Every structure is written in C-alpha cells, then in structure tokens.
Amino acid sequence: MRSSTKPNLSRGRAGTGGFTLIETSMATVIIGVGVLAMVDAQSAFIVSNQWSSHAASATFLANEIREFTRNLPKHDPVNGLVLIDDGNGNMVISGWGFDGGEVTVDDFDDIDDFDGITFSYVGTPGLNDKDLPGPINSFGEVIPALSHEGVEQGYTDSESIFSGDAMYGWFQTISVVKIDPFDTSVVHDNSYFELPNGSFPGRLVDEYPLRVSVSVFYQGVNDIEADLVTTVTWIVP
User: Fold this and answer.
1) pTM, rounded to two decimals
2) Which DSSP string do the residues of 137-155 spell out, in sequence order?
3) How many domains does the chain have?
4) Does a structural domain hold residue 186?
5) Confidence label for 187 from pLDDT (cuts 50, 70 and 90)
6) SS3 state at 106
C-alpha cells in the first residue's frame, strides 16, 4: 500500500500573512509622533533663531543712538537749562527738549533734545509728533532696508517710508531724565534744584546727571502692535 504525504497548504498560507490592521495603525502612530516632534523642534529652532537675530539687531540700534549722543553736551550749549518766570510768578524750565528751529536730527545739539523722540520706519519729517524717519545710525542717517540680494535701498525725505526704504519694522524710542547724583534710581523733575544749606553750596538746575534710555521695538508684518525687544540705559554725569 502506497502512502504519500501532502504539504499542509493552509499552514503555509498562514505563515506568509501580512501586517494586521492593529500593527499598521501602531506603526502609523509611531511615525506620526516622530514627524510631529521633528516639526515642533524645527519650529522652536526657527523662533529661537529669529528672536536671537532680533535681539542682536535691537542692541545694535540702541548703541547707535548712544554713539550718536556720546560727544553732545547735556543741555543746550547756547542757552543752557534755566528757570524763568512765566509772567504769573511761577518759575518754569526753559531749554529742555528740542528747541525752536530744530526740525531734524541734524539740528539736535544736546542730549535733552532727544527726550521723547522716536525714530521709526513709519516716521515722517518734522517734530510735531516727535516721530522722525529712522531707525538711525551713529551718524544720524536713516538705516536703509536691504533687498533680498543684500543691496541697500535708497532713502530721501521725499520718498515714502512705507516703500521699504528704511529698516522695516524697527523703532528707537528715547527717554532722558534727570537723576540724583548719589542715587541713580531717584528721578527728579526737570526743574528741580537745591538751595545752599550750611556747607552745601547748592546745586543748579543744570548740574544733575542724566539717565538716557533707548527702547527698541519691532513690529512684524502680521503684528498688531510693536513688541519691546531691548532697552539700553546709560548715565551721563
């Protein structure tokens, strides 16, 4: 009697089966989580890199103002900072801030002229709103925007700031305050002075150190308002 052994076809077919639906789903989830993690890390890197770039630009812009004012006197070199009678028996300060006839940054001849002034890419010539074209460099020149090829875009007062001629999105806002010579955290009014007292000879209204602060803001294309990036402060004795 002849006997033969036949292969178990059903067992062979079971051994060559593919992935199950559960295995496929788990693999998809694992790959998806990995891709999302990579995308999130890339996004965080871009944001961090952008902020680092903005911080460097802002510090540069603040220090340009510092360099521009470095050799200027604290107060007007002609009329100085004085108290005058307003005609009603009240003594008011004269000489703080920009003076008559000063209409551009080139006319500023002392540090207190800069108090409350902003140089921005939306600034316009004239001091009515205290917002002048800018930002500016240490020579008082508007810093031009750069094209994608790295070519400087020209700027003149007759051209529109919105055309991209100035460094887009940046603001330099300057604050100048009079401070106590022995405690720089104490701010005095512009008209403050001290009378003689005993061995103390007194201190005139223009004999106080100044604290200058430059706050640099940036407003992106889709930003509702400008964000403060950095503030640089120094003392003028």
Assistant:
1) 0.74
2) -TTSPBPBPB-TTSPBPP-
3) 1
4) yes
5) very high
6) helix
